[in-house]
């Protein structure tokens, strides 16, 4: 008698997306809030800097993909969900549920981060790692610069995800490739936009990031979503074109 194959329930998949996105925001944004801006003793600063934040985001994806990928696919990002649906790798009917779960997971994480941050002497008056352009950009970059980098880097992220999880890719290495790609993306774009490429992460920070973060949030919903969709639509015609090989 053959074994019966089982599939995770919808509830299990959504729970995995909540927890995975929670870990992503807690690890990445938490590092930015608690470790990237803390100076400690002036003679011996304790500060992980941009490199530490980039690594934190990459590591959270590696952890999440291997822990929860077998359950939900390990999206943790509305742009990823949209891109995979556009590429035909994910059912459109399930997109809304995944996006809501990701936003909920991110919001829970940012609420925890904010609650902890308020416990420091004098409370907390930062932006919780919110994304921004113009005066809200770490480097003062314009909306055009931010839009270009967010669309392109989100598309690159989706190209890697779709390629690394294809049937032709070596089994078992997708999480590493995806995590390293997210690290690289942050190294490039933290000075430009504080790096979104993930609307759920941007919403999570904007909730506690002040009025300017909320006003500018639209950009970090639109640009990553556009980049994800473009990559999903373009992947097959660009990279999955096949030719018939004549038999010997």
Overview of this protein structure:
- By secondary structure, the protein is mainly α.
- The protein has one domain: Glycerol uptake facilitator protein (Up-down Bundle), CATH 1.20.1080.10.
- It is built from 9 helices and 2 strands, in the order αββαααααααα.
- It has helices at 10-34, 49-72, 78-86, 95-117, 143-164, 174-193, 199-206, 211-216, 219-239, and strands at residues 40-41, 44-45.
- The protein has a two-stranded antiparallel sheet with strand order 1-2.
- Strand 1 (40-41) and strand 2 (44-45) form a beta hairpin.
- Helix 3 packs across helix 5 (143-164) and helix 7 (199-206) runs antiparallel to helix 9 (219-239).
- The longest helix has 25 residues, at 10-34.
- It is globular, with a radius of gyration of 19 Å.
- It starts with 9 loop residues before the first helix and ends in a 9-residue tail after the last helix.
- The relative contact order is 0.17.
Oligomer: single chain
Largest beta-sheet characterization: 2 strands, antiparallel
Helix content: 55-70%
Report the strand count: 2
Q: Over all CA atoms, what is the radius of gyration?
A: 19 Å
Count of discrete domains: 1
The CATH topology label is Glycerol uptake facilitator protein
Largest sheet: spatial strand order: 1-2
Question: What's the CATH architecture?
Answer: Up-down Bundle
Provide the CATH superfamily: Glycerol uptake facilitator protein
Mind telling me the CATH class? Mainly Alpha
Instruction: Report, as a whole number of angstroms, the end-to-end distance.
Output: 41 Å
Structural class: mainly alpha
| Low-pLDDT segments, ≥5 res | none
Strand-residue proportion: under 5%
The coarse overall form would be globular
Mean pLDDT: 93
Put simply, the count of helices is: 9
| H and E string | HEEHHHHHHHH
